[in-house]
Amino acid sequence: MMNTEKNKIEKAVEDGLSKPAFDLTQDYAELGLDSFLDNPALKELPLVKSIVGVVRGGMAIREIWLAKKLLTFLSEFHNGKLTEERKQEFLTKFREDTKYRVSVVEHVVVLNDRFISVEKSKILANLFQAHINGKFVWEAFCQLSECLDTLHTRAFAVLHNSANSDDPFHFKTHDYDVDGGGVLFSAGLCIVHGNHYSVNAYGQYLYYYGIKGDIDFTFPKQESN
């Protein structure tokens, strides 16, 4: 991606976080790729226009897919559960702290570009909201995002099942699918104890804040001995 194209995309995402110029009632995750070809209104969205190039008379599939994921991320962010106070605190820092703004935009663009599943764009938006909601610092968001990037989508169900089991976040090697713990271990989300797995803090944070989207969730305090 050339620098001029990258700069246009980053500017569009920056604008999209600050003041969305698109329909927040539209479920962009459910739109087919053909919609971006056949819907003139979609093609005129500033974000889409900055991303989707024209290749031999038609739009490139990769650019269409990136536009869809970024619109999904931004829509999930703006339709989320953040209070207006929290959102305004974020926007103030986002506008005034150049280093933070650049890091946010780069992470949003690069990660969404890498995702194969649009569901991950929704989860990333939820994690981002949880960060803004004060549940973890920026560095932790970056680490959780890396875990999400490497995580197989099959792991979403594994996390859900393990969270709602009789012994939450602990399970045998072959519970919940064929070696369900393997997909968590490969993303750094669990610890192996012989033929048992236990989901670590990263996995639990990703489940509650990202997959469930419960950005107000508070972990119970551990009882001291």
Please describe what this structure looks like:
This protein has 225 residues and is mainly alpha-helical. It folds into two domains: 3-150, no CATH class; 154-211, no CATH class. The chain is 60% helix and 7% strand. It is built from twelve helices and five strands. The protein has helices spanning 3-18, 33-38, 40-43, 46-51, 61-78, 84-96, 98-114, 118-132, 138-150, 154-163, 180-185, 201-211, and strands spanning 54-55, 58-59, 170-172, 190-193, 196-199. The strands form two sheets. The protein has a three-stranded antiparallel β-sheet with strand order 3-5-4. A two-stranded antiparallel sheet has the order 1-2. Helix 1 packs across helix 7 (98-114), helix 5 (61-78) crosses helix 7 and helix 10 crosses helix 12 (201-211). It is globular and about 55 Å long. The model has no long low-confidence stretch (mean pLDDT 86).
